[in-house]
Design brief:
alpha+beta, Thiol Ester Dehydrase, Chain A, three-stranded antiparallel beta sheet, elongated
């Protein structure tokens, strides 16, 4: 099972060629990442600000399959194919909303860190349970 959300392609997201400039996909992935937590009742800003737990990206791989243009929407499926002791890999499979065409896939590995020391910590049990619900 995957978590699913959507993002809109904004005017400022496209380059001179009229398609989404590739780094903007990383912003879309992070928006989906935040929604993943928010939807489960673990708002990401509370994780960082109150619980002092963060998940910075340590590795990313992305394959682009089809372009997106201004006015398109992107449907993003988020799953968690790997859960380690102190890290997790999130998979983002993205589809162009208007026709369901596969637009891109990304695998992003994040470390679980204490925001005060910025040192790796074990993934808290409640977050591990959340990740396991979306494991593939």
């Amino acid at each position: 099972m995957a978590f699913r959300t959507s993002v809109e392609v904004r005017f400022g997201d496209v380059d001179h060629a009229g398609i989404v400039f590739y780094p903007h996909f990383f912003i879309y992935f992070h928006e989906a990442f935040e929604e993943f937590f928010n939807d489960a009742g673990h708002t990401y800003h509370e994780l960082i600000d109150d619980r002092r737990v963060g998940f910075p990206t340590v590795h990313i791989e992305t394959d682009y399959k089809a372009p997106l243009k201004y006015g398109d929407a992107l449907d993003i499926e988020v799953s968690v194919p790997h859960i380690g002791k102190r890290s997790a890999t999130f998979r983002y499979v993205c589809y162009r909303h208007r026709d369901g065409i596969h637009a891109c896939t990304a695998n992003i590995t994040t470390a679980c860190v204490d925001m005060k020391s910025f040192r790796a910590i074990d993934i808290p049990d409640d977050l591990r349970e959340l990740f396991e619900r979306f494991a593939r």
